[in-house]
Amino acid sequence: MEEIALWRKRIDEIDEEILRLLNERIKIAQKIGEIKKASGLDIHAPEREREIFERVLKLNEELYGGEFPKEALFHIYREIMSACLSVEKPLRVAYLGPKATFTHQAALEYFGFSVHYIPVSTIKDVFNEVDLGRADYGVVPVENTIEGVVNYTLDMFLEYDLKIVGEVVIPIKLHLLSNLSSLEDVKRIYSHRHAIAQCRNWIDKNLPKAQIIETESTARACEIVLELNDAAAIASEVASYTYHLNILAQNIQESANNFTRFLIVGNRSMKRTGKDKTSLILAVRNKPGDLYKTLESFYLYGVNLTKIESRPSKKKAWDYVFFVDLDGHMEDHNVRMALDLLAKENRIIKMLGSYPKALFEES
Ligand SMILES: C=C(O[C@@H]1C=C(C(=O)O)C=C[C@H]1O)C(=O)O
Description:
The record marks 260 as: Essential for prephenate dehydratase activity. The chain is α/β, with parallel strands linked by helices. It has four domains: 2-87, Chorismate mutase (Chorismate Mutase Domain, subunit A); 90-172 and 258-265, Periplasmic binding protein-like II (D-Maltodextrin-Binding Protein, domain 2); 175-249, Periplasmic binding protein-like II (D-Maltodextrin-Binding Protein, domain 2); 269-356, Alpha-Beta Plaits (2-Layer Sandwich). It is built from twelve helices and 15 strands. The strands form three sheets. Strands 1, 2, 3, 4, 5 and 11 form a six-stranded mixed beta sheet that branches. The chain has a five-stranded mixed beta sheet with strand order 8-7-9-6-10. A four-stranded antiparallel beta sheet has the order 13-14-12-15, sandwiched between helices. Strand 1 (92-96), helix 4 and strand 2 form a beta-alpha-beta unit. Helix 2 (46-64) runs antiparallel to helix 3 and helix 11 (290-300) runs antiparallel to helix 12 (333-344). It is globular and about 75 Å long. It starts with a helix and ends in a 7-residue tail after the last strand. The mean pLDDT is 94. Bound molecules: ligand ISJ. The site of the ligand C=C(O[C@@H]1C=C(C(=O)O)C=C[C@H]1O)C(=O)O has 11 residues, from helix 1, helix 2 and helix 3.
């Protein structure tokens, strides 16, 4: 027992040291913030944050063999930087709500907790909040590995002149959440029908007698379950701490390949980081070989396309535009050359931006 007391004393000392360093760090961030303000620079610097994440995760591996878990380290640094940024400038971030959805989770992963969040009820409202300057950034889903593309999000880029400033890829993990502490007491399960469908096998195996009730969202299921003492909800991890519910069973979804990609939209351009992506909208005329000619520009300069998606232009019947994602930043030489050629031929409708690739691209 005495040995524990000694080690705990050592942990107390370490915590004092961590606290001292955190306070020193936030003061320096404040100074940097003042310099940025005075020189008219953007206060929020996601490219710098990316550099820090990569450096810290690498050092943790190289110096300490990854003793401290990578995911935990990511979250700790996410919060440290979120807090440091908040003393420089409080950010306002609109996202497709309600609270505790996967879009909320994506927003937290990108901005941390020290941000003013504005949950809104439609994707259009997210774009609107940013467009009107009521939010600095917006977070929207753009594609899921099982359900496909969120067309509505793509269409919003035709309507609004916002830029893509970042992306987040989140594994869709579903959990059984409840006030209860034991599975046997669960008589009813509430959730959105997609979530129920994805967990059907687990339910049949583990709670075959439970009554299943559909709700309009996984967040709503949590609200209902909060008031009950015989029920559980299927929802995200963020929902568990938003609603203070116990996780009775983890990762009960079927597919291990269920990921959703979210976009961070804003009004600014991002610097080159060396691991970037560029998105744009192209016009392809309705005549033989035109798509081929467009793609040839990328081929000529060795630009790798990661996605190409067609959408009705909404200007004329059967007239389409193409949403293209490519590897690289628009300031990279080969990307610049390909884009210049496309611009010369009048094929670019809109540049949506170059931005750092998702930190954990798990698709
Ligand atoms: C301190 C800065 O401001 C913000 C906070 C950061 C941090 O806590 O390290 C990093 C980037 C910025 O979003 C900076 O620009 O360096």
